[in-house]
Amino acid sequence: MKTLLILVALVALAFAANTGPQSYITVYPDGYAGVNITENVTAFVPTNISVIGVPQGLTVSYSNGSPVVYSYSNGVVKIIPDMNGSVAVSYYTYSIVSKNNISWFVNFTSPYSAVVQLPHGAELVYLSGIPSSVEAVNGTLYLTLASGRWKIGYILPPPSKVTQVSPAPSVFPLTPLVYAVPGVIIVIVGLVYALYTKNRKKESAVERSMDAQILEFIKKKGGTAKESEIRESLILPKTSAWRAIKRLERQGLVRVEKRGKENYVILVNK
To answer: Nearest Cα to 82, choosing from 50, 115, 122, 42?
Structure first.
């Protein structure tokens, strides 16, 4: 809770003087990033919000969580809000993170200021410009950057001795008691379970967001939509869309009908 409060304070300070769109980029160790862009809007005034990278699982909502009707084309989210307030554009992307044999890189262009959160334990090795600030909170770096083109290079720490026995990275310092064989087994099993649970929660959140978008899209289409329409409108990879539709079908929320060469997804309860 303390860490969260510190992070919120950092973000608030970073954007205190910025009245335009604001972005927050969370970079994960496995090479993808979560992006959240917020902007204050005025009711019935058309607003365009440029995205960073190629979005997947795109959602647009008001600060109270209610969805915003939008269209997306060529890197721009277009909305006509029906109320005053703050709008958040959220998605994940694989297009801004890359890796060579040694280092990871985050490479993007942003039309507005951004806070970039690097993976826990990451060591900064390259920065294409001078950041507004660099903060470290409990081993995690937060870079506040002005608008423009940025390239950030970093390396992740090597696996600890615990990870040589198990694929799970060590997140706790070892003590002499750990060297007892039964203790090592308990620690490893605990770490594997904790990391598996954390990753499943992250995946479940993405899946829930994707499922909600698909259901909302089909509802707007009158209860029936082509699978190809769903993929193109929500900017989803073919495999991700197919898995999401199958997931909804197993839950009894939709059914799939083959009509000619097209798959049609139909709401079970309109």
So the answer is: 42
- Closest C-alpha among 6, 40, 268 to residue 137: 6
Amino acid letter, residue 268: V
Residues 6 or more apart whose CB falls under 8 angstroms from that of 72 comprise 55, 58, 78, 233, 235
Order across the sheet with 33-41: list the strands. 56-62, 85-93, 33-41, 22-27, 114-117, 140-145, 133-137
pTM for the structure as a whole: 0.55
73/112 same-domain check = yes
Instruction: Give the strand order in the sheet containing 123-127.
Output: 97-99, 104-110, 148-155, 123-127
**From the DSSP assignment, how many helices (H) and strands (E) are in the chain?**
5, 17
Expressed as residue numbers, the domain containing 193 is 159-270
Structure tokens at 166: 């198990």
**Domain edge (last residue) among 120, 155, 190:** 155
Contact 39, 78 (CB under 8 A): no
Token readout for 244 is: 């999401």
Query: What's the pLDDT tens digit per position in 129-179?
Result: 999 999 999 889 999 999 999 999 999 987 654 443 434 443 434 444 444
- Dump pLDDT digits (tens) for 67-85: 999 999 999 999 999 999 9
User: Same domain, yes or no, for 31 and 66?
Assistant: yes
